[in-house]
C-alpha cells in the first residue's frame, strides 16, 4: 500500500508542480494561510486551513479547495490553486483548505466510512470545517462550492454526492465518479477504477452516489468535470463515467445540449442549461495527461462555480451599468514584473453576437507578450481583442474566456472598462 501511494504521489505531484511553473505565478505569502484547530469532529486527523481576504463580502461565498495526493494546503494555495486565491481577493469569498495527514497525503475516497454521509471518514472532518467557517464568516449558504485536483477531484465528487444539500456546485480536475474508488480490504487504491476499467450504466453510477445519502430526494450540485485525454494515472474513461453519474443525478440525457471549443485542444459539452453555469459541464483536453489545471482553466471554474461576484445567472439582465448586451469579468495573477489576465465575456443580450471585438485600455506600464483565444492589437494602450475561429459566435447567455500574459512596471490593475462591438459592458 505504501509503495502504491508513493507511486501515486510521484505521478501526481510532479506534473502538477511542472504545470505551476508554466503558469509563471509567484507564490503568495504562506503567512496569509491560517491554521485552524478545534474546529469540530475530525475522526481522521485532518488539518484545516483558511484564507480570508482583506476585504470580505458582506455574505461571502465559500470555496472548499482540496489538494492532490502528496500535496498540502500550502502547496495548492501557493501554486496550482493560486488563481482561486487571487479571485478571492477580488470577489471577497473565503477559502477552506483541508489537508490530509496520513502517509502519502491522499484523501480517503475508498473505505465504507468515507463513502457515507457522516460516516466518520475524511469527508466528515471536511464538513466540520465547512460548518465552522460557515458560522464564523456569515457565509451565504447558497454559495458553498468545492473544487479539487486528482485525489481532491475524487473528494469533490464524493462531497457533492454525500452533502448535496450543502454544496451548490463543484469543479473536479482529473477525478473519478463518486464511489469508483471503493474498496473492501481497507486499501485506499482501486486499480480497476484508476485504470478506467470500471464501467457502469448512468443509472448504476447515479444509484451509487444516491446510496451515500439514502432517502435524499432534493437537488444535486451542478458539476464541472475536466480531464486530459492522455491521463494514465486516473485514466480518461473515468471522465465519461463521471458525466454518466452527474447527468443521471440531475435526470438529464447524456446527449450534450451544447458543444464548443473554448480553446483549440478543448472540447466542452454542456448538459441541461447551456450557459456559463450549466447543470453539468465536461471539458476534455486533448493531448494532456494528469497535470490539470493548466493556465487559464481556473478562470472557467471560477465563473462556473459562481465565485465571480454576486451576479445573477447569465440569462437575467445585469444590475445597472452598461447596455445590458454584455458582461465582463476578469482575473489577474501577478508576480514580480509579469502577470496573466483571464477575461470572461458573457452575452447578456437577447440576440447572438457574431465576429466580436472587445476593446479595453491596459493600465500604464502593461505590455502584452502573448495571448490565447483571441488576437490582440496593439500590445499596449487601447487594445482590441478579436475572436478566433472557434469562439466567434456568442449565443444569448453564452460566455467565452480569453486571456493574455503581460509585462508590467508595477501597476497590476485590471482595465477599468470594456466595450463589445462598440457597446459598453457591465464589469462584474
From TrEMBL:
Residues 1-30 form the signal peptide. SMART domains: CBD_II. Residues 319-428 form the CBM2 domain. Pfam families: CBM_2 (PF00553), Esterase_PHB (PF10503). Keywords: Hydrolase, Signal. PANTHER family: FERULOYL ESTERASE (PTHR43037:SF5), UNNAMED PRODUCT-RELATED (PTHR43037). NCBIfam families: esterase_phb (TIGR01840). This is PHB depolymerase family esterase. The lineage of its organism: Bacteria, Bacillati, Actinomycetota, Actinomycetes, Streptosporangiales.
Amino acid at each position: 500500500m505504501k509503495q502504491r501511494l508513493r507511486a501515486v504521489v510521484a505521478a501526481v505531484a510532479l506534473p502538477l508542480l511542472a504545470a505551476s511553473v508554466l503558469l509563471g505565478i509567484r507564490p503568495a505569502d504562506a503567512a496569509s494561510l491560517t491554521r485552524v484547530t478545534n474546529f469540530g469532529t475530525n475522526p481522521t486527523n485532518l488539518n484545516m486551513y483558511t484564507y480570508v481576504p482583506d476585504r470580505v463580502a458582506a455574505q461571502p461565498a465559500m470555496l472548499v479547495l482540496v489538494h492532490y495526493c502528496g500535496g498540502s494546503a500550502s502547496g495548492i494555495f501557493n501554486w496550482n490553486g493560486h488563481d482561486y486565491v487571487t479571485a478571492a481577493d477580488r470577489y471577497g469569498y473565503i477559502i477552506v483548505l483541508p489537508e490530509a495527514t496520513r502517509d502519502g497525503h491522499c484523501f480517503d475516497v475508498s473505505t465504507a466510512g468515507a463513502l457515507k454521509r457522516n460516516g466518520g471518514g475524511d469527508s466528515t472532518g471536511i464538513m466540520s470545517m465547512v460548518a465552522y467557517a460557515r458560522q464564523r464568516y456569515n457565509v451565504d449558504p447558497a454559495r458553498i462550492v468545492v473544487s479539487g485536483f486528482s485525489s481532491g477531484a475524487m473528494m469533490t465528487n464524493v462531497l457533492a454526492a454525500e452533502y448535496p444539500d450543502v454544496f451548490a456546485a463543484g469543479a473536479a480536475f482529473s477525478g473519478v465518479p463518486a464511489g469508483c474508488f471503493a474498496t473492501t480490504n481497507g486499501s485506499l487504491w482501486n486499480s480497476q477504477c484508476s485504470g478506467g476499467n470500471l464501467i457502469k450504466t448512468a443509472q448504476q453510477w447515479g444509484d451509487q452516489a444516491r446510496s451515500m445519502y439514502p432517502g435524499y430526494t432534493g437537488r444535486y450540485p451542478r458539476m464541472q468535470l475536466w480531464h486530459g485525454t492522455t491521463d494514465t494515472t486516473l485514466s480518461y474513461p473515468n471522465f465519461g463515467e463521471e458525466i454518466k453519474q452527474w447527468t443521471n443525478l440531475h435526470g438529464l440525457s447524456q446527449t450534450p445540449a451544447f458543444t464548443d471549443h473554448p480553446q483549440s485542444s478543448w472540447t466542452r459539452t454542456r448538459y441541461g442549461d447551456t450557459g456559463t453555469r450549466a447543470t453539468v459541464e465536461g471539458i476534455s483536453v486533448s493531448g494532456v495527461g494528469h497535470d490539470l489545471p493548466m493556465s487559464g482553466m481556473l478562470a472557467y471554474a471560477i465563473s462556473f462555480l459562481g465565485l465571480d461576484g454576486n451576479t445573477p445567472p447569465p440569462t437575467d439582465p445585469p444590475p445597472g451599468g452598461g447596455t445590458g448586451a454584455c458582461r465582463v469579468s476578469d482575473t489577474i495573477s501577478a508576480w514580480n514584473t509579469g502577470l496573466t489576465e483571464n477575461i470572461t465575456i458573457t452575452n447578456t443580450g437577447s440576440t447572438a453576437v457574431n465576429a466580436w471585438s472587445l476593446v479595453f485600455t491596459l493600465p500604464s506600464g502593461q505590455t502584452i507578450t502573448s495571448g490565447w483565444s483571441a488576437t490582440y492589437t496593439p500590445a499596449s494602450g487601447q487594445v482590441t481583442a478579436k475572436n478566433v475561429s472557434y469562439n466567434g459566435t456568442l449565443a444569448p447567455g453564452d460566455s467565452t474566456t480569453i486571456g493574455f500574459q503581460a509585462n508590467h512596471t508595477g501597476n497590476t490593475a485590471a482595465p477599468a472598462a470594456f466595450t463589445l462591438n462598440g457597446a459598453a459592458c457591465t464589469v462584474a
